[in-house]
């Protein structure tokens, strides 16, 4: 998917300084990050900050993660192009677009109807046809399309929601920030013989994962 040329210099700086210099090496991830126009997923008055090295606020008190975190989580999924991916937390739809560039298909769940609608419009305008968006409680996953080869959670969980791990295919990978509301550790979890094998990747801070198997509504997010 082509980006507008007006952001090409900022995007190139993002790729070289924020991603490659910090150890993102998967060429497919780098190409996807180069193709997806991040500015399209931001309000007009925020688009000039699209390739800045930080998270940005969007509607419904949510955020669009900084480019490095998007790339790190995507690289940890180890996508080859044939996978079915479950994304919990559509948000702006930017991470969804990066996944859609790299996977066979993406099922994405967002609890905020307004965000889900906005993301769907942008994704359609950009020509993505392999994304199915739903509004609902992401902590419950989307069992109708399970099992998934990959699961990615873009909100902070106190623990891995059991139904998400259950919906992960044997040998599949789940990437999720786990911790308390003050800060989390990004974990890559591989399902081996039905059990989780955990690799800790990086410290991070996400909005809370709200839902029946997550934080209560009063926690925010």
Topology:
Blueprint: H1 8-19, H2 27-35, E1 56-58, E2 62-64, H3 67-76, E3 84-88, H4 94-102, E4 105-110, H5 113-125, E5 131-135, E6 148-153, H6 162-166, E7 168-180, E8 183-192, E9 195-204
Walk me through what this model shows.
There is one protein chain. The chain is α/β, with parallel strands linked by helices and 221 residues long. The protein is 26% helix and 28% strand. The protein has helices at residues 8-19, 27-35, 67-76, 94-102, 113-125, 162-166; strands at residues 56-58, 62-64, 84-88, 105-110, 131-135, 148-153, 168-180, 183-192, 195-204. The strands form 2 sheets. A 7-stranded mixed β-sheet has the order 5-4-3-6-7-8-9. Strands 1-2 form a two-stranded antiparallel ribbon. The longest helix has 13 residues, at 113-125. It is globular. The protein starts with 7 loop residues before the first helix and ends in a 17-residue tail after the last strand. The model has no long low-confidence stretch (mean pLDDT 94).
């Amino acid at each position: 998917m082509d980006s507008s040329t007006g952001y090409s210099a900022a995007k190139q700086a993002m790729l070289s300084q924020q991603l490659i210099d910090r150890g993102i090496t998967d060429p497919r991830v780098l190409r996807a990050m180069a193709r997806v126009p991040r500015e399209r997923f931001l309000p007009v008055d925020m688009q000039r900050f699209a390739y800045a090295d930080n998270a940005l606020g969007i509607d419904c008190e949510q955020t669009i993660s900084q480019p490095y975190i998007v790339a790190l989580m995507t690289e940890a999924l180890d996508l080859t192009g044939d996978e079915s991916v479950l994304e919990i937390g559509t948000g702006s739809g930017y991470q969804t677009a990066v996944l859609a560039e790299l996977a066979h298909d993406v099922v994405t769940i967002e609890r905020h109807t307004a965000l889900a609608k906005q993301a769907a419009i942008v994704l359609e305008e950009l020509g993505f046809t392999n994304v199915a968006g739903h509004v609902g409680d992401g902590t419950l996953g989307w069992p109708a399309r399970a099992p998934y080869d990959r699961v990615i959670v873009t909100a902070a969980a106190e623990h891995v929601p059991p139904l998400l791990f259950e919906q992960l295919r044997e040998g599949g990978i789940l990437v999720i920030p786990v911790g308390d509301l003050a800060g989390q550790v990004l974990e890559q979890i591989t399902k081996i013989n039905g059990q989780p094998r955990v690799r800790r990747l990086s410290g991070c801070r996400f909005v809370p994962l709200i839902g029946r198997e997550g934080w209560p509504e009063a926690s925010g997010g």
